[in-house]
Specification:
The chain is an alpha/beta fold. The protein is built from 10 helices and 10 strands. The chain folds into 2 domains: 119 residues, Rossmann fold (3-Layer(aba) Sandwich), CATH 3.40.50; 118 residues, HUPs (Rossmann fold).
Length: 283
C-alpha cells in the first residue's frame, strides 16, 4: 500500500488549493506528501540560429544567446525552489510532518511517470498560471496528467473546503468500480457520506448494481443514498453537484479516445471545467 501522495504545484493561484487538498488527504490517510514542481522545456530556453547569418555574427549571437539561456535557466530554478518552499510551508501549517519536495525539468507528463512511483494519489490544480484570464478554460496540462497517470488524480478546485459528502457518478464501468474499491479501503474516506448517482433510465439491472454497491459501501461504514436520474450525464451530474451540496465529485475519467472526444466532447473535461468542487478521477 502506498504511503504518500504527489502534489503538483506551479505557483499559480491554484497551488495553495492543491496543498490544502493534499494536506487534508494526507492527514486522514496517514500519508506523507511529495511536492513536485516541473520546469518545462520552454522555461529552460533553447537556441535557434536558423536562417542566413554571417559566420562572425553567428558566433557572437551564439555566445549572447547561450548566456541568456543560462540566465533564464537559473531564474527558472530559483523560481521553482521558491514555489516549493511556499508549498511546503502551507502543507506543514496543516500539521503534515512527512513532506518532501522535488524540482525537476522536462516535459510534465514524462516527468510524472517517474515521479508518481509509490504515490497513492496525484493532486493537481484545475488551471495553471493563466487561470485569472480564462476562467472557463481547462488547464492545458490537466487532461494530459489524467490520461497519462496510472494513479487516481484529484483535480483541486480553486478554494479548499473540508470534505464531508461525496457524490459518485456511477455508471457501473471498471473505472468507477476502482473508485468504489478506493473509497471502501482508504482511511481518507472513512465516515464520509456517499451519494451514488446514475444518469439515464432506471431498470432492474441498474437498480440491482446500485443496491449491490450501496450495500458494500454501508458495510465499510458509509451512509449511502443511491438514485437514478434521467438525462445526459453532463447535465444530470452538474445539477446534482449544485443541488446536493456535495464537497467532492468522484467519477471515471476519459473513457473514450482523444479523437472521439474532439468530435463529441468529453464528460470528464466538462465536469472538471464546470464543477466548483474538487473532482477525483479514476481510469
Amino acid at each position: 500500500m502506498s504511503d504518500k501522495l504527489l502534489a503538483l504545484v506551479d505557483g499559480s493561484i491554484y497551488s495553495k488549493s492543491v496543498c490544502d487538498h493534499a494536506a487534508w488527504l494526507a492527514d486522514r490517510a496517514g500519508w506523507g506528501i511529495e511536492i513536485l514542481h516541473v520546469i518545462g522545456r520552454r522555461d529552460i530556453g533553447h537556441l535557434d540560429l536558423s536562417g542566413s547569418i554571417a559566420l562572425g555574427a553567428r558566433s557572437a549571437l551564439l555566445a549572447e544567446l547561450s548566456e541568456l539561456d543560462e540566465t533564464q535557466a537559473r531564474l527558472s530554478r530559483e523560481k521553482g525552489r521558491a514555489i516549493l518552499e511556499e508549498a511546503e510551508a502551507i502543507v506543514r501549517q496543516h500539521g503534515v510532518s512527512s513532506v518532501n519536495s522535488r524540482l525537476m525539468s522536462g516535459d510534465l507528463v514524462e516527468t510524472l511517470v517517474e515521479a508518481e512511483a509509490g504515490a497513492a494519489i496525484v493532486v493537481v490544480g484545475k488551471r495553471g498560471e493563466a487561470a485569472d484570464f480564462a476562467k472557463m478554460h481547462l488547464g492545458s496540462n490537466v487532461e494530459r496528467v489524467v490520461r497519462s497517470s496510472s494513479r487516481p488524480v484529484l483535480v483541486a478546485s480553486r478554494a479548499f473546503q473540508p470534505i464531508q459528502s461525496v457524490l459518485v457518478a456511477f455508471d457501473a464501468g471498471p473505472s468507477v468500480m476502482k473508485a468504489i474499491d478506493h473509497i471502501c479501503g482508504n482511511r481518507a474516506f472513512a465516515g464520509l457520506d456517499i451519494r451514488l448517482l446514475t444518469a439515464g433510465n432506471e431498470n432492474a439491472e441498474v437498480r440491482a448494481k446500485l443496491e449491490s454497491v450501496s450495500a458494500r459501501l454501508r458495510g465499510a461504514g458509509h451512509s449511502v443514498v443511491a438514485e437514478v436520474k434521467p438525462g445526459q450525464p453532463e447535465q444530470v451530474i452538474a445539477d446534482e453537484v449544485e443541488k446536493s451540496g456535495a464537497d467532492l465529485l468522484v467519477m471515471g475519467a476519459y473513457g473514450h479516445s482523444r479523437i472521439r472526444n474532439l468530435f463529441i466532447g468529453s464528460t470528464t473535461s466538462e465536469m472538471i471545467r464546470s464543477c466548483k468542487i474538487p473532482v477525483l478521477l479514476f481510469r
